Amino acid sequence: MKAISGLYAVTPDLADTALLLIRTGAALAGGVKLVQYRNKTAGENLRREQAAALREMCQRHDAALIVNDHIELAREIDADGVHVGADDASIATARARLGSGKIIGASCYSNLQQGLAAAAQGADYIAFGSFYASAVKPGATRAPLSILQAARQQIALPVVAIGGITTDNAGDLIRAGASAVAVISALFAAPDIEAAARRFRQIFQEKTA
Q1: Number of separate domains in the chain
Q2: 70-91 per-position pLDDT tens digit
Q3: Which of 75, 125, 188, 189 has the greatest number of C-beta atoms within 10 Å?
Q4: Which one of 38, 47, 95, 102 is the catalytic residue?
Q5: Catalytic residue among 55, 107, 134, 179
Q6: Catalytic residue among 97, 137, 142, 207
Q7: Domain membership of residue 99 as a residue range
Q8: pTM over cut 0.85
Q9: Quick check: is 102 catalytic?
Q10: Per-residue pLDDT tens for 54-73?
Q11: pLDDT class for 126, splitting at 50, 70, 90?
């Protein structure tokens, strides 16, 4: 099972598969080892096409591919795992369908108790956020930095931070206890995606040295 650490690249909603692959390829060239395929606007056929193409690309770069929400799609393409939220299938269902060797992540928003429950149910990592204003989820409840430190002290799992993360604020999250930072806009909307990925990696190296 691949490690949940560093920059966690979460794909933007793109209907153009070729463009999605170009942008993801640039992120992988910048050193990304963890990709989440997330497309809230795609239909089933497009999701399958994109996820399968990303799976192949991630394999070539020795990177893990996690599918957001869709357990059966993750199973079909043999993704490395799935990420579930409060409105998705349970962790137990995901584990039953995917097996013990796959990664299961859970969104816990700003609720430490939810993180504790996810850990007890068998999650492999937990995610908190939104920590900052996010264009992807502008109405999301804010999570305090203190939840990262509390989670690291009470839960023996990698802790992922998400929501409005940039190269300017990522260091604060890492210092507070984030094992990984999940990024969409600051990576995939950057003028130079590969350079942005390298900068995030540099920040992790500096803050964890």
Answers
A1: 1
A2: 999 999 999 999 999 988 889 9
A3: 125
A4: 38
A5: 107
A6: 137
A7: 6-208
A8: yes
A9: no
A10: 999 999 999 999 999 999 99
A11: very high
Active site residue 185: no
**Beta partners for residue 109, in sequence order:** 128
Cα 8 from Cα 39, distance rounded (Å): 16
- Residue 148: is its pLDDT beyond 80? yes
In a domain, 172, yes or no: yes
> Cα–Cα distance between 165 and 204 in angstroms, integer?
13
Look at residue 119 and tell me if it is in a domain: yes
Here the CATH number for the domain that contains residue 131 is 3.20.20.70
Residue 1 belongs to a domain: no
- Helix, strand, or coil (residue 103): strand
Q: Are 40 and 67 in contact (CB under 8 A)?
A: no
Give the separation between CA 105 and CA 103, rounded to whole angstroms: 7
Per-residue pLDDT of 171-207, as tens digits, reads: 999 999 999 999 999 999 999 999 999 999 999 999 7
Distance CA 61, CA 28 (A): 7
| Residue 144 in domain | yes
